[in-house]
Design brief:
Blueprint lengths: L17 H31 L3 H37 L3 H36 L4 H16 L1 H17 L3 H23 L9 H25 L15 H33 L3 H17 L1 H19 L3 H28 L1 H4 L8 H14 L3 H16 L3 H26 L4 H25 L28 H6 L8 H4 L1
Helix pairs in contact: 1-6, 1-9, 1-10, 2-3, 2-4, 2-5, 2-8, 2-9, 2-10, 3-4, 3-5, 3-8, 4-7, 5-7, 6-7, 8-15, 9-13, 10-11, 10-14, 11-13, 11-14, 13-16, 14-15, 14-16, 15-16
């Protein structure tokens, strides 16, 4: 029989009031993301004291970093969706097995990407065409970051798997530990305080790798001991092909979605770079500010992923839809209010990061004031895609990322900035227009209701084989049949 998994962490997700449960799940995620932003803000704050060329160096590196973080996060989202649906279906054995397979698969990929990324970092930076004084610092920063990618992916594994179980507080605590350590270490390595050498831009990367490694080691240890609900075992990390296919079938589109956002930012950075270092610095600072504004909707989106996953697993499609609508409404209203505030005070928001850099400061103010009008719509986009991911329909959320980030943002920004009198303002309007259209399109698809299908079976008993020649129009049916539903077989049977 499937093991009951109703605990203090999961209670209320598939029953009880929706709004309090969403808030309970979302607030630790929002705080975790705010702490992640503090990572970036701390680096930008200290490097802003070095000069705008240092800020430009991490602005060039940032889209590349986001691209690879997105790949890891996307793959682990498969674990979130599958774990959540198995928990909703009251089958903890399979949730643990999925967690183990996800950990092993993503861990191997992290090692491969770390080695390849280290050697190719200078070539990647050169493709973006930064000025010579920026190139060396950006290359050193990126190479150092790639050395630590196994630690960064390790924390993503823990964070996303445990969210599927319904625990969003433990990842928040680990993020807080990591951020406090990073803030403490940053200036020592950047400026060479005390016995440490002055490493400049590279010092910020070293601090990030060391402190994120601390969080990763603790998180993976918690999974191995099972003290937070899910338990990863080394035996179950041995490759099981049908399960890996199921994980990749959901994870690759999710990684594609997040990677397309990063690719869009990467290409957008190349477009912005043509307008000079002050514009590039403004783009980096504006994006960091926007990342803080978007935190509530991103937290609500991830909470919606857990709510949708567990409720679909429990055959509560009505509750999954209701939770998603509540989440989208809150995100739209809250981010619209932030947008008004950002527009009114855009003149002073860049001062925190670019003291004395007048040209970049003016450009930052324009970017924020124009982009502010689209904040509410981007909030709806984030929540809608969170619902699609919880249902395992990552192909759908990937499609909206492609349309919004690549199909709209880059070409509109390029055309408006190069072929109209808007100039640099055209770059910023491209971002605002793409955000708005993407949010409207995603919510329209959500209202059609085609996403309300679960991808696991609640019963651990084997399912009857499909009759010869019988086919299904459901693209997720293959994954339903391939994901193991019973207690994992002995290792000898999996070989």
């Amino acid at each position: 029989m499937a093991q009951s998994v109703k605990t203090a962490k999961t209670e209320g997700i598939t029953d009880g009031p929706i709004s309090p449960t969403l808030f309970k799940l979302a607030w630790p995620i929002v705080l975790s993301m705010f702490l992640q932003t503090i990572y970036n803000v701390a680096d930008t704050f200290w490097l802003g004291r070095v000069g705008d060329h240092a800020v430009a160096a991490i602005s060039v590196s940032f889209p590349v970093i986001i691209l690879f973080i997105s790949a890891g996060a996307g793959l682990t989202i498969a674990g979130t969706a599958l774990v959540a649906q198995y928990i909703g279906a009251q089958n903890k054995e399979e949730a643990n097995f999925i967690a183990s397979q996800t950990t092993g698969t993503v861990g191997v990929m992290a090692i491969i990407l770390s080695v390849a990324g280290y050697f190719f970092s200078p070539h990647i930076i050169s493709l973006l065409g930064p000025e010579p004084e920026v190139f060396a610092d950006a290359s050193a920063y990126l190479q150092t970051w790639f050395i630590g990618i196994p630690f960064i992916y390790g924390f993503l594994i823990f964070q996303n798997l445990i969210k599927g179980y319904g625990d969003t507080i433990t990842p928040m605590k680990l993020m807080m530990l990591s951020v406090v350590a990073n803030i403490a270490v940053d200036p020592f390595l950047i400026f060479g305080w005390g016995p440490f050498p002055e490493m400049g831009v590279q010092g910020a990367a070293v601090a990030t790798v060391l402190t994120r490694g601390l969080a990763s080691v603790v998180g993976i240890s918690l999974l191995l001991t099972g003290t937070r609900g899910l338990k990863v075992t080394p035996r179950d990390m041995r490759p099981n092909l049908p399960t890996i296919k199921a994980i990749l079938g959901i994870g690759i589109p999710a990684a594609g979605e997040m990677s397309m956002k990063a690719v869009g930012m990467l290409v957008m950075t190349a477009v912005v770079t043509a307008f000079g270092t002050p514009t590039l610095a403004a783009f980096g600072v504006g994006n960091r500010f926007a990342s803080m504004v978007f935190l509530p909707s991103m937290g609500l989106g991830q909470a919606t992923t857990t709510m949708v996953g567990q409720n679909l697993g429990a055959d509560r499609q009505d509750r999954a839809e209701a939770a998603s609508k509540v989440s989208a409404s809150v995100a739209f209203v809250l981010l619209s209010v932030f947008g008004v505030f950002s527009y009114l005070y855009s003149d002073v928001l860049g001062v925190l990061f670019l003291p004395g850099e007048d040209a970049a400061l003016v450009l930052t103010s324009r970017y924020i004031s124009i982009m502010a009008f689209s904040f509410g719509f981007l909030g709806v986009l984030n929540v809608s895609c969170g619902a699609f991911r919880g249902a395992g329909q990552t192909v759908v959320s990937m499609a909206f990322a492609v349309v919004s980030m690549a199909g709209l943002r880059v070409p509109i920004a390029y055309l408006l900035s190069n072929f109209t009198a808007l100039g640099t303002d055209g770059l910023w309007w491209g971002v605002a227009i793409a955000n708005t259209l993407g949010g409207v399109a995603a919510f329209w698809w959500f209202t059609l209701g085609k996403w309300k299908k679960k991808i696991v079976q609640e019963s651990p008993e084997p399912r009857p084989a499909r009759a010869a020649g019988e086919s299904s129009s459901d693209p997720y049916d293959k994954w339903r049949r391939e994901i193991p539903d019973s207690k994992p077989a002995p290792s000898s049977e999996r070989e």
